[in-house]
Amino acid sequence: MTRVPVSLPEVRDSAARVRPDSRRVQGRRILVVDSYELSRKITLEMLSRYDIHIEAVKSAGEALTALRQAFDASVPYDAMILDGFVPDMDSDLLCKQIHGNAQWGTLRILILSSNPQRGDAEHFRQAGADGFLSKSLRETYLIPMLNQLFSDQETHERRFLTRFSLQTLSEPDTRPTELPCGRMRVLLVEDNPVNRTLTRRLLERLGCDVMTANDGEAAAALWQWHPFDLIFMDCLMPRVDGFEATRRLRQWEHEQNRSPVPVVALTASAMEEDEERCREAGMDSFVAKPVNLEMLRAVLEQYCQATATS
Questions:
Q1: Mean pLDDT in residue range 112-124
Q2: Stated pTM of the model
Q3: The domain spanning residue 65 has which CATH number?
């Protein structure tokens, strides 16, 4: 079996990153199963911020071998983070095989999906998985979801978690509409007028001061004259798309000796190739359309702390 060495990508250290409750995650043993190198590295980088023993493999066959070896050595894994697609076996069949083995009865399985479709979460629940999460949301929800899975494990509970059920468990209807850090200055770059209006209204509900642009050229004219805490950037636009606009922004910041403004990509597709292209252009993270209030709040809160202390 070929184990994948944990070499991590360089990721910009953001003071805005809010560290979630990770008390039950510390000291755990987690196996990451993902055949796509960049996606695997991103997950490993997120986990490496915590006191976790991590191993990574690229296929279902390697995962089963790793599980057996760990059990035989009396150091079983506590959880497996499984890509929704692995090349040598359907991921749902792998879940069923693991779920049917009594040796791995306490193992919790979290599915990470590149392009979640309606019904996917229920499909994996029936296959024996314990949680389901879109890869585009792992920056916000990965550690909280693992923490809840281990909390349930300690009390011998088994319930299926998604980001929606996690919010219900952790934030019961008492959350204020506006952000805890107060108003944020946001630039929204979106060429579709309907999406632009809807997203702007949601951001304003969260207490943001929003300026809008319909393409990358218009956005450049705004960021050169107005300070922003965060930029939401549509990827596909006429004239100057979001990728080129972000490259121009990073170049301008470098030339003007400005601090980098976080850029969050808005994309209609959450494929691995999109994530790689976003990062290569200088974007910090991305969310899949259509957006909603809680999705935007989750993204904003990643950068909220720095705004409050600036």
A1: 86
A2: 0.54
A3: 3.40.50.2300
